[in-house]
Amino acid sequence: MKNIGSTLATVWRIAAPYFRSEDKWAGRGLLAAVISAELAIVGITVLLNQWNNRFYNALQERNWDTFVTEITYFCVLAAIYTVIAVYQLYLNQWLQIRWRQWMTRHYLGEWLHQANHYRMQLQGDAADNPDQRMTDDVKLFVERTLSIGVGLLSSIVTLASFVVILWGLSNAAPLHLFGRDIAIPGYLVWGALIYAVLGTVLTHLIGWPLVGIDFRQQQYEADFRFNLVRVRENSEQIALLRGDEAERERLLVRFGRVVENWLAIMSRTKKLTAFTASYSQASVIFPYVLVAPAYFAEKIQLGGMMQTGSAFSSVQGALSFFITIYRQLAEWQAVVNRLDGFEEGIAAARRLTTGNDRIHVVQAAGDGTIDLKGLAVQLPNGRPLVTANGFSLRKDERTLVTGPSGSGKSTLFRAIAGIWPFGTGSIAIPARATLMMLPQRPYFPVGSLRGAVEYPGQEGAFTAAQISQALEAVGLPRLALLLDEHGHWNRTLSLGEQQRLGLARALLHAPQYLFLDEATASLDEPSEAALYGLLREKLPATTLVSIGHRSTLEAFHQRNVVFVRDGDQFALQEGSESARPS
Predict the structure, then answer these.
(1) One domain for residues 30 and 161
(2) Bridge-partner residues for 563, per DSSP?
(3) Pair 76, 198 in one domain
(4) What are the residues facing 176 on neighbouring strands?
(5) Residue 285: which of 313, 261, 262 has the closest Cα?
(6) Residue-by-residue DSSP string for 39-92
(7) DSSP state for residue 363 in the 8-state scheme
(8) What beta strand segments (E) does 35-187 contain?
């Protein structure tokens, strides 16, 4: 019961926000319509149960007029039932897509809010494969929640409706054994209850391991799919290293986990199906066994016997609801657990930005200087990396940052960008200042070249003439003719071309602060010098901060900052001939 309560509380926490959202009236209206249709179907089932009595009595009595009347009555009920069932399915699917659309937008917003997706990776990404959480898991959650919720409501209403009928039939057809009537009030109800309780308990004992197995199956499937995508994204490097066989083995190992877990599902499902199928078949004959002595003792007619069988089946089916949906229930609980873990992962990433033991990026009024105050950058495991206290990046001053590999230069840039929370101290950035970070390997979204170079701005933010001029300025005139062509630009362009395209992006956006993290390292020195000269010419109001190892970069910067070792960490120091690393 504790697990059930915890699961239902989690389901409520995940599901309720949609019905309180901006789409709440549409969602509530569709849900009400689906529930009303289900209740109408239960009502028709009650009418059909009563029809069973009259129809089979007419057959037993060979009453042609009553037979024709009841056939007509059945056709009317069947037509109404069909219309309601069709529109219930239609409205259910409409509610599913609206609910799923809202949840997907909500999760995307939370995941992508202020680099939560990046911080989730920094802390080990406990909520693995977020792509699966926002696709398969959201879809299954909506489907299963509606299916199980509406099914449970239907079972409750069905039980309440047919228990009354079955109780009355128990009195009309008392238990008849050994030539005697045995007075057990509502014995058919008690028989259905005992039958269903035993079946539910046995089903749970057989099938409960499916929850954990289903959880792992989704995890292994997502892990296998994720690694397939990684191979596709890094196909050139794998081909150059002739790593095809190594990747094949790695992928087969991951797929082996899928197969092994699937075999466990097969084994457990076989046992569960063997019981539930036997249980379902036995439930067909069980009510007739109970009521047959009364029928043969001529206590009831054929119609009463058939109505009893139908009512017993409805009561037993309602009581056995969890047996019939146990497989879905196990899958649903696994989905709920995964979405709960995803929300907790997002919340944990958000908590990394709060608290006194984190790096805080604050806005400050001033002369346009970025001030590092008491800054101590750490690795996620708490190991110190870089200290910088009272250090400033001054406006309109081009700064070159150098130091040994692994000293934390790129990590300092991440801290300034506000995405690296590990450490203490503060970074004061001028209010409304615009910053742009260009890494060594820039990112371009799949789509048109125009959208790739305008990123992260909206496509259409710049004119074709502005983009063409920027591309020509950085040495990519041929791309000016391909602005509307779609492609995977990180794969089709060389790294040198990607770096030029990244600089074209900087020319268009003209940020107040431009951080270049070895953003020209793949270019030859003359090309690099030409591009730095271009930045100085085209972006005179931009404060340039560069990470680089080439001595030729010093000519394009007014200041040199060196990372020097200070015990088990590094510290920032103004550059000099003696301090610069060889």
Answers:
(1) yes
(2) 572
(3) yes
(4) 181
(5) 313
(6) HHHHHHHHHHHHHHHHHHHHHHHT-HHHHHHHHHHHHHHHHHHHHHHHHHHHHH
(7) E
(8) 175-177, 180-182
Single out the residue in 289, 323, 351 at which a domain terminates: 351
Q: Is 298 helix (H, G, I), strand (E, B) or coil?
A: coil
Q: Identity (one letter) of the amino acid at 466?
A: Q
The total of other beta-carbon atoms located within 10 Å of residue 554's CB is 15
- Chain Cα centroid distance, residue 425: 34
CA 91 remoteness from chain centre:
24
Using an 8 Å Cβ cutoff, are 123 and 351 in contact?
Answer: no
- Under a CB-based contact definition with an 8 Å cutoff, are residues 370 and 513 in contact? yes
Distance, CA of 207 to CA of 203 (rounded, Å): 6
Beta bridge partners of 564: 571
- Length of the chain as a residue count: 582
CATH of the domain at 489: 3.40.50.300
**What tokens appear for 220 in the block?**
């292994």
270 and 180 in one domain?
Answer: yes
Give the pLDDT of the chain (582 residues) as one tens digit per residue: 456 778 888 999 999 999 999 999 999 999 999 999 999 999 998 898 888 888 888 888 888 888 899 899 999 999 999 999 999 999 999 999 999 999 999 999 999 888 888 888 887 655 667 888 888 899 999 999 999 999 999 988 988 887 877 777 776 666 656 556 666 677 777 877 887 788 878 887 888 788 788 878 888 888 888 888 888 877 767 887 788 888 888 899 999 999 999 999 899 889 888 887 887 787 777 777 777 777 776 777 777 778 777 777 777 777 778 777 877 887 888 889 889 989 988 888 888 887 778 898 888 876 778 999 989 999 988 899 999 888 888 888 899 999 898 889 999 999 999 889 899 999 999 888 899 999 999 999 989 999 999 999 888 889 999 999 999 999 999 998 899 999 889 888 999 999 999 999 999 999 999 999 999 999 999 999 999 999 999 999 999 999 988 888 988 999 999 999 888 889 888 875 433 433
| 443 shares its domain with 486 | yes
Q: In Å, how far are 117, 417, 422, 471 from 111, measured between CA atoms? A: 5, 18, 19, 33
Measured at the CA of 494, the angle between CA 488 and CA 496, to 5 degrees, comes to 130
Helix axes 187-207, 244-296, angle to 10 degrees: 160
Report DSSP letters for 169-218, one per residue.
Answer: HHHHS-EEETTEEE--TTHHHHHHHHHHHHHHHHHHHHHTTHHHHHHHHH
Our count of domains for the chain comes to 2
Cβ burial 398-434 (10 Å sphere, 16+ → b, else e): bbbbbbeeebbbbbbbbbbbbbbbbbebbbbbbeebe
Tell me how crowded residue 440 is: count the other CB atoms within 10 A of its CB.
17
DSSP class of residue 356?
A: T
Q: Are strands 447-448 and 513-517 parallel, antiparallel or unpaired?
A: unpaired
Structure-token match 């697990």, residue found: 3
Distance CA 451, CA 535 (A): 22
Buried b (16+ CB within 10 A) or exposed e, 224-250: bbebeeeeeeeeeebeeeeeeeebeee
